[in-house]
Write a structure and sequence with these properties.
Length: about 300
């Protein structure tokens, strides 16, 4: 986008936002847009609006998202998706990603640099590493979609029965995989009744790692991405297990969100210490900028209510 076009777009946004706020009988609060970004992805046009402060961001979004919602409707012939962020968040985001580059160099994790280059510069490597991505719960589909642009991805889902993979989650995964044309296999191995009580008692996140390890060895793949891992990364038998949510400090959208794993739900329902652990993880995600405060509050309330 040229400077002139960008300037015209910013002026249009100011005009539309003022009109929308006036139509909703909202205060004529001053705000500043410092930058806009237009990009095309998956046949959709995205508009990102960056404001100077969080207060400006709130003004553009409006109470309950009414202002930005009406803005999307007004500009639906130009943009499919409109997001709003404040410029401070963008600077922090870029600094965190650049800090990751040094961390990867110092810890023999150079293969993860490709993700950073994609996130910062939209750069896709000419030669893609083969990786396995576990698709099981929560943000896994969004992560899979991103990693599929950077690596040669083999998606794997553990189907140990409804106690691990509910039918609705399985259907959503299959529809997503089919729409993206991603290679995908199930690990069909029933979870024994003897194991379940122990997993529920000890907090189940991480148990699938050992099952996937054998598949990684079989396919001769060194790198496995999963969110079902206690910690940020582990190296076992030459296999690198990467917890994407812990290693990459980025905020993920909930467009293709999957529910909590049923084992995790049983775990926090049956044991208070597991409930506290999950809430601590959610609070940490909010503090580190991985989740919006409202999203974190919703998840915490869901856990508390059981």
């Amino acid at each position: 986008m040229t400077y002139q076009n960008k300037k015209e777009l910013v002026n249009l946004l100011y005009k539309k936002i003022w009109e929308i706020r006036e139509s909703l009988n909202l205060e004529s609060t001053p705000f500043e847009i410092v930058d806009v970004e237009v990009r095309e992805e998956n046949d959709k046009v995205f508009l990102s609006i960056y404001t100077l402060t969080r207060s400006d961001k709130s003004t553009v979004i409006g109470p309950g998202g009414w202002v930005v919602g009406k803005l999307r409707e007004a500009l639906k012939d130009k943009f499919d998706i409109i997001t709003v962020g404040d410029y401070t968040d963008i600077l922090v985001y870029k600094k965190r990603l650049n800090d990751r580059l040094e961390f990867f160099e110092n810890n023999n994790l150079e293969f993860l640099k490709d993700v950073v280059y994609y996130l910062l510069k939209n750069k896709i490597p000419s030669k893609k590493e083969k990786v396995i991505v576990l698709v099981q719960c929560r943000h896994d589909l969004t992560i899979l979609d991103m990693l599929n642009k950077v690596y040669d991805v083999y998606a794997i889902t553990y189907d140990g029965g409804g106690v691990v993979l509910p039918p609705k989650t399985k259907q959503k995964i299959e529809e997503f995989i089919r729409s993206k044309g991603i290679k995908h296999k199930y690990i069909k191995e029933k979870l024994s009744r003897e194991k379940m009580p122990d997993l529920i008692d000890k907090y189940p996140c991480g148990f699938i790692k050992d099952i996937i390890k054998e598949k990684a060895k079989f396919y001769n793949i060194k790198y496995v991405f999963l969110t079902c891992l206690d910690g940020d990364y582990k190296i076992e038998d030459g296999i690198y297990f990467i917890n994407f949510l812990k290693v990459f400090p980025i905020k993920l959208k909930k467009n293709d969100y999957l529910d909590f794993c049923p084992l995790l739900i049983q775990s926090y329902k049956s044991k208070k210490s597991n409930k506290v652990k999950l809430i601590d993880e959610i609070v940490s995600d909010v503090y580190n900028g991985l989740k919006e405060p409202t999203e974190g509050a919703e998840e915490i309330m869901k856990v508390i209510r059981g």
